[in-house]
Write a structure and sequence with these properties.
The structure is a homodimer. Chain A is of the alpha/beta class. Chain A has helices spanning 22-32, 40-48, 60-65, 69-75, 85-92, 112-116, 131-143, 161-166, 182-191, 230-235, 246-251, 258-270; strands at 2-4, 34-38, 53-59, 80-83, 100-105, 121-125, 148-151, 176-178, 195-199, 206-207, 217-221, 238-241. In chain A, β7 (148-151), α8 (161-166) and β8 form a beta-alpha-beta unit. The termini of chain A are far apart. The A-B interface holds A 45, 136, 139-140, 142-146, 166, 168-170, 173-174, 242-248, 251-257, 259-264, 267-268, 271 and B 45, 136, 139-140, 142-146, 166, 168-170, 173-174, 242-248, 251-257, 259-264, 267-268, 271. Chains A, B: InterPro entries: Alpha/beta_knot_MTases, MRM3-like_sub_bind, Ribosomal_eL30-like_sf, rRNA_Methyltransferase, SpoU_MeTrfase, tRNA_m1G_MTases_N.
């Protein structure tokens, strides 16, 4: 059902307000159990992953051009708010170029124990707080065949708009769960029979190429600045590293960003 | 020499104006042959790479705390403009948290032919226009032992502030040159004896693991959206690919971002 809305302050558009205000969005999205999908491709994937559509927001210009088939299908069963470019920018805080936004309902995440059923190759993220990095790692992990991702309690939200966008929708393609308890979380994964490999820049760790794989393997990745906590490093079965160029070490260019490191490690380890 | 400046419009601060205005900065920096280094670590690396310091801009707060030794050394031989936090934000357009900015002089890039002397493993970037991606690829390439980088004429500037920042200063650690002629540029590299490998998502290309290496190898990377041009793909010695997970292909998560792809390919190929 198409509904014209003329006023950026109309309460029916409340799901879409100030999309670049991270603090506001975090509380709004968690309180109302929603997230925003941007653009036709992402909306299609979010719907495909079983998320209910709360509403769609688009501009008159896009409606005139004809909504993409898939959006039109979804639109038949939900409310589509149609606004001018000015109202769109007024509500969201920026000019939206991808035609349509959808407010989607969150669905309950599985528990870690449940998530691990039937998986062999997983990635565990400890305290990655950058939404772009989380999204990029989901994209890599999905493309390279990782079965599932476990997040520590403080990791950034994969359904935050920027994570979803950077992931190119991969957050809907790879199952994930969030630990309740950081301190005991790794022990639960080890108890499920996973060999836990802690990726570290420490050059005394085992190079990727020399790692002996196991039936079930979990790759642990820490945050960009601090790397993995000493608690997790100590508890992991083995520290592993990416071999750096000796010349680079001398120049002090001795680390990779977490996404590059994740890509190399997923490619090198988890395909085996 | 420390000079207090009270007015954000003072012409002596002209090198530092509106650092987030990309169009303005591009023309200003190329016309005056300068670039901006941000923070002590990056300034140190830029100086170490032989770039002359035009001036430094810092805040009274940082001067009171005591400038880091290295900045103090540099500061002894140049002009240091000291401003309030308000003037800093007024000039640059945002609150600078890294203490000091330096305006550095650009030095002439080598010609491609000159750059290639003595190199065995190089990366060639075709039309990567995103500064963050260019910086991240420099960081990967430097850490993984790539000898040099060649840019196509339309590639983003590695000395733009965002490239420098994302590279963590690696743009000063790895030599690079820019082709004059896109159409004939690859032929010049091949004529220098490089085997040119074109990275492509095309799953009929040779997987990385199966590539037969040569004495001199050039890895060609195209832009995020379009990949390599058909001209370069056709001219390259061999198309190569990263193996994707079959499950991911089915889900449509069938590509990696260019930085992740570059990291995997540099790690997989160029260390050999």
């Amino acid at each position: 059902m198409l509904i014209q809305v003329e006023d950026a302050a109309d309460p029916r558009l409340a799901d879409y307000v100030r999309l670049r205000d991270m603090d506001l969005r975090k509380s709004l999205e968690s309180e109302h159990g929603l997230f925003i999908a941007e653009g036709e491709k992402v909306i299609r994937r979010a719907v495909g992953a079983g998320h209910p559509v709360r509403s769609i927001l688009t501009t008159a210009k896009w409606v005139e051009r004809g909504l993409p088939d898939h959006i039109a299908d979804v639109a038949g069963e939900t409310t589509v708010y149609v606004v001018s470019d000015q109202v769109m920018a007024g509500v969201t805080g920026f000019p939206v170029h991808r035609g349509a936004l959808a407010s989607m309902g969150r669905t309950a995440l599985p528990e870690v124990r449940e998530l691990l059923n039937g998986t062999r190759r997983i990635v565990v993220l400890e305290d990655l707080t950058d939404h772009g990095n989380v999204g990029a790692i989901f994209r890599c992990a999905a493309a390279l065949g990782v079965d599932a991702i476990v997040l520590s309690p403080r990791c950034a939200d994969p359904l935050y708009r920027r994570s979803v966008k950077v992931s190119m929708g991969a957050v809907f393609a790879i199952p994930y769960a969030r630990m309740i308890d950081w301190h005991g979380g790794l022990a639960e994964i080890r108890a499920a029979g996973f060999r836990t490999l802690a990726l570290t820049p420490d050059q005394s760790a085992t190079p990727l190429d020399e790692v002996v794989m196991a039936e079930r393997v979990a790759l642990l990745l820490g945050s960009e600045g601090d790397g993995l906590s000493s608690h997790w490093l100590k508890e992991a079965d083995q520290p592993v590293r990416i071999s750096m160029s000796p010349a680079a070490m001398e120049l002090g260019v001795d680390s990779l960003n977490v996404v590059a490191a994740a890509a190399i490690a997923c490619h090198g380890l988890l395909r085996r």
